[in-house]
Amino acid sequence: MEEKKVSLFKMVSFTVCGIVVLDTFVAPAVMGVSSISVWLLTAALFFVPYGLINAELGAAYPEDGGIYLWVKRAFGEFQATLVAWFYWVNVAFWMPAVFIAFTTWFSMAFAPELGTWPSAGITIAMCWLIVAIGIKGADLSVTMTNIAAIIKVSVLLIFGVLGVIYAATKGVANDFSLASFAIDFNFDTVAYSSAIVYNLLGFELISSIASQVDDPGKNIPKMTILAGILIAGLYIVGTFGVLVAIPADELDPLYGFFYAIKELCSIFGPGQEIAFSVVIAATLLTLVANMISWTLGGVEVLDEAEFTKKTKILGHRHAKYDTPDYSYILMGVISTLLIVLNFSLGEGANDAFWTILSFSFLVFFLPYLWLFPAAVKLRLIDPDTPRPYKVPGGMFGLCVAAGLGFAFIALGCFLLFFTGEGFDPLYHGTLVIGTGLTTLCGVLFYRKSHS
């Protein structure tokens, strides 16, 4: 029986579900209405070039592994091993942050008296749910993200519609005059542009399972265009909804989306609580789906690395599903330890949360430092491979796109070291030492697999 391929619709849904994140996109809105202009500018200068490069590479090399495979072809196994390792580690450290946000929002909406350790229990349970779904294979993961993508699109569209109705009936919380859209090019704007870049990453996820994609040479470029337009539009609609409901100077980066939903649902009068409960429940489901897509991508990329095939843990396959089950389980173990640490620190939990999340951001950015140069080098050293799609403008157009992408990622890495509060031993130590140890582990794994 021929294996069922992932269709164009499912590819778009999977990518939208992976890239659009409702728990972190609010932060740039603290700039006010000008944040919408910053979203548009960042999309033009980063998201479009990044998408075009992924379209070219995904169509030219339709094999499992995605970013790992591209870097391996361009720079060799050693550097590709580091990329795959960074990709996987990021997800293991990011998952606790997502589900801490999940539990926090759940508690605020439905169980305000929920204690510390019940909250920790829910957070840990959600991580292991993701592990279980991943072990069952890509088919289940893709199907669930398809459903969640529809929910996610619906939530943000409803968000926009509610924003328009709220503005018409109650006014707006911020100045939406033409002058308010002007961008003030200062340090904060640059920093929030990097936060926007973080929210736009993930085009390469579908290429981690490229062999299961229907006609990748044609459909990956199509997916890039369709998903890119939808993603950019959804983020802008969401930002509009937030700014209609909440004054920019009162926005909290972690809870802004939650309170914006609550305020927008006030247009329903007596039905406010019911409407809010439905929308926030749907939003919580999207957080789960987001981790399904990234966990699948992280594990599949790591699974293609040579060193995983020579280790008992990362190379182990599930007897029934033939998936790298121990890789998922190890991710669950790391996430559980980080969650217990976070909830054990009491008043210091908030600092620990943001420190771990910032470390995750840094590790997340690192693989992309290889992605953009790899696209240029592969065009040079591998001209004979058919390219169903090419970045427009020839070699010059590709170099411009790669240069813009690399510059945004490098800037994002650099800005993570500036908290605005000077030197913090815990924060900066975690970034430097944590990244160093992570890199060292990747080097040791590579050496062990070649000894």
Measured by DSSP, the beta-strand proportion falls in: under 5%
Task: Count every helix, treating DSSP H or I runs of 4 or more residues as helices.
Answer: 15
Radius of gyration: 21 Å
Structural class, from helix and strand content?
mainly alpha
Strand tally is: 0
Could you give a quick summary of the protein structure above?
This protein has 451 residues and is mainly alpha-helical. Helix content is 71%, strand content 0%.
List keywords for this structure.
mainly alpha, 451 residues
Describe this entry's structure for a reader.
It is globular and about 65 Å long. The chain has helices spanning 8-19, 34-60, 67-75, 77-110, 116-135, 138-170, 187-200, 216-245, 256-264, 272-304, 325-344, 349-365, 368-381, 394-415, 425-449. Helix 12 (349-365) packs across helix 15 and helix 13 packs antiparallel against helix 14. The mean pLDDT is 87. Helix content is 71%, strand content 0%. The two termini are 40 Å apart. It has 451 residues and is an all-alpha fold.
Layout of SSEs?
Elements: H1 8-19, H2 34-60, H3 67-75, H4 77-110, H5 116-135, H6 138-170, H7 187-200, H8 216-245, H9 256-264, H10 272-304, H11 325-344, H12 349-365, H13 368-381, H14 394-415, H15 425-449
